[in-house]
Design a protein that fits this description.
- The protein is α/β, with parallel strands linked by helices.
- It is 18% helix and 32% strand.
- The strands form four sheets. Strands 4-3-6-1-2-5 form a six-stranded antiparallel β-sheet.
- Helix 6 links the parallel strand 10 and strand 11.
């Protein structure tokens, strides 16, 4: 973890605040567009937020948080109780939504989904790569950073207030794309579904805030063999691998507990995991919050 000082907490819209976190012990770890960090809050919760500042600025990180009335305590604490001057521990950046090199880009964002897209658009523009953004939200006043985007990028950014103009026509956008264009999309589930219907799978890169609804086989019990500590942890059918390990005294970090953030990644030495995450675990890895075993045991690097 990296120790940071909350330097500023600025309102962006009525329900979104921007946090500027300054490294308390020197430069912060480098990151690339699409990355996110875990922020450990003083109320003992850890939450994931996309970095939306400038990767060239090693002194600070910027994230933005929308207030969620159905919050599990993270956004409510930030909006109601967090104040500048507080020290916060922040993880090293992780990137499951990297900007792949391409001759041109189309970025699609909805609401708070603009956060990972901001540094992507900045990077593409700075590199001289043609890039445009279609940014949708209920009204301009409710769309974080809309004014900043218009001021910096002008006609390359199209702001769509959906209450007035309806949703963007992704089919028309797909029909007009030049060959080689990569499409990056982040936003609510309905926007992602529309983008997936309009753009070919190899052309579209999307980031989800929540997992896709999917059906798996019934849970079965298995053993987690912790190789380095020579201990075996039984994982009952009604308990996650993450919880079983934590209850056995293995402090595996976690965040979303839904298979979309990657903070609970483990290395698998033997056995076959049943991957239930939404970000695609690397070879030889698994995410303990949702994934299980296809056989009677897994050997883990713990």
């Amino acid at each position: 973890m990296q120790r940071t000082l909350l330097e500023r907490l600025d309102p962006v819209t009525d329900d979104v605040v921007s946090l500027v976190l300054r490294g308390a012990d020197g430069p912060l770890a480098p990151w690339e567009p699409g990355a996110h960090v875990d922020v450990a809050l003083p109320n003992w919760l850890t939450r994931q937020y996309s970095l939306c500042g400038d990767p060239a600025d090693r002194g600070t990180y910027r994230v933005a948080v929308r207030y969620d009335p159905l919050s599990r305590g993270g956004s409510e604490y930030i909006h109601r109780f967090l104040r500048p001057g507080r020290t916060l521990d922040v993880s090293l950046p992780r990137n499951h939504f990297p900007l792949v090199p391409a001759p041109r880009y189309l970025f699609l964002a909805g609401g708070i989904g603009i956060t990972p897209v901001l540094p992507m658009l900045r990077a593409a523009t700075a590199a001289g790569i043609p890039a445009s953004l279609v940014y949708a939200g209920p009204s301009v006043d409710a769309m974080p950073f809309a004014g900043e985007l218009r001021a910096v990028y002008g006609d390359a950014v199209r702001i769509v207030a959906t209450r007035e103009h309806g949703r963007p026509d992704f089919d028309a956008l797909a029909a007009g794309l030049e060959p080689g264009t990569l499409v990056y999309c982040c936003g609510p589930a309905s926007m992602l579904a529309a983008a997936e219907a309009a753009f070919p799978a190899g052309q579209l890169h999307a980031e989800r805030f929540q997992p896709l609804p999917r059906v798996f086989a019934p849970n079965t019990a298995f053993d987690a063999v912790c190789a380095r500590s020579a201990r075996t942890v039984p994982v009952p059918a009604d308990e996650s691998l993450l919880d079983a390990l934590n209850h056995a005294g293995f402090p595996v970090p976690s965040g979303c507990r839904e298979g979309v953030c990657g903070s609970c990644e483990l290395r698998v030495l033997d056995g076959e995991p049943e991957h239930r995450d939404d970000i695609g675990a690397p070879e030889g890895r698994m995410y303990a919050c949702v994934s299980r075993a296809l056989g009677p045991r897994l050997v883990l690097d713990l």
